[in-house]
Design goal:
single chain; 269 residues; alpha/beta; Rossmann fold; four-stranded parallel sheet; globular; binds D-glutamic acid
Length: 269
């Protein structure tokens, strides 16, 4: 057993969809969360910049005595993790592999959709992971750059979200995908809108939740789970407004953020 916390980071609030699942399936685990709210979005930036940000995020979390890091960000997992995976002693897990695996198990017609940021779609890591598991899968990818600002500003169940989602999902419907990866950890907040448009026969895969399940399996296998029986403790750090994070973060976690949220200067890492 290992009582050290798990480090989790994202470009902003989206990674909290992974933390929500950690709270559910590993309630004893302590979590240190970093949301890079001062530099969100990552998805419109170059790979070099995303890698620089991700290295800083990892260095910040490694300053705590953590046992593993989850990159709870589709963009960072696609555009940085494959290039920096060997740089660290800490175990680092992303969202791409677990979500691709879940999609391959869920699909019946082998038509899988992937929604993500521009960078996520550009680097095609969900697609290559799906292909490695199911070579004859047909994959439809779509970059959805307007989803993140909608979510970060709380427009999750709104007419504007429905309009934009209808446009983004047109191709997914035309091509009859039966499984759709929400390849950005912000998107589960739009699950209702996306689900209404796609219909109940389409399985939506929550990449953040899948990463939490994969982390559970890893920690269990390595005997690193916290089995103390004590409730997990949570610490949150951001690179911009503490108030905005506390107010909106509750939407992702489905419970208010009562713990302290601290602002840090991520450029110093
Ligand atoms: N949460 C990030 C992801 O999973 C999206 C936001 C961004 O572009 O930074 O891709």
């Amino acid at each position: 057993m290992d009582k050290r916390p798990i480090g989790v980071f994202d470009s902003g609030l989206g990674g909290l969809s992974c933390v929500k699942e950690i709270m559910k399936i590993m309630p004893n685990e302590d979590v240190i969360y970093f949301g890079d709210t001062g530099r969100v979005p990552y998805g419109t930036r170059s790979r070099e910049t995303i890698i620089k940000y991700v290295r800083q995020d990892i260095r910040f979390l490694e300053g705590f005595d953590i046992k593993a890091i989850i990159i709870a960000c589709g963009t960072a997992s696609s555009a940085a993790l494959p290039w920096i995976a060997d740089e660290n002693d800490t175990k680092i897990m992303g969202v791409v592999e677990p979500a691709a695996k879940a999609a391959v198990s869920a699909t019946k017609n082998k038509k899988i959709g992937v929604l993500g940021t521009g960078a996520t779609v550009k680097y095609g890591k969900y697609a290559s992971n799906i292909k490695a598991l199911c070579p004859d899968a047909e994959i439809v990818q779509k970059a959805c750059p307007l989803f993140v600002p909608l979510v970060e500003n709380g427009y999750t169940d709104s007419d504007v979200a429905r309009l934009i989602a209808a446009e983004y999902l047109e191709d997914m419907k035309k091509k009859s995908v039966d499984t759709l990866i929400l390849g950005c950890t912000h998107y589960p907040l739009l699950k209702k809108v996306i689900g209404d448009i796609m219909g109940k026969d389409v399985t939506l895969i929550d990449s953040g939740a899948m990463a939490a399940s994969a982390a559970y399996e890893f920690l269990k296998q390595e005997s690193l789970l916290n089995e103390s029986g004590e409730n997990g403790k949570y610490r949150y750090f951001v690179s911009d407004s503490v108030e905005d994070f506390s107010a909106l973060g509750g939407m992702f976690l489905d419970r208010p953020i009562k713990e302290s949220v601290e602002k840090i200067d991520i450029e110093g890492f």
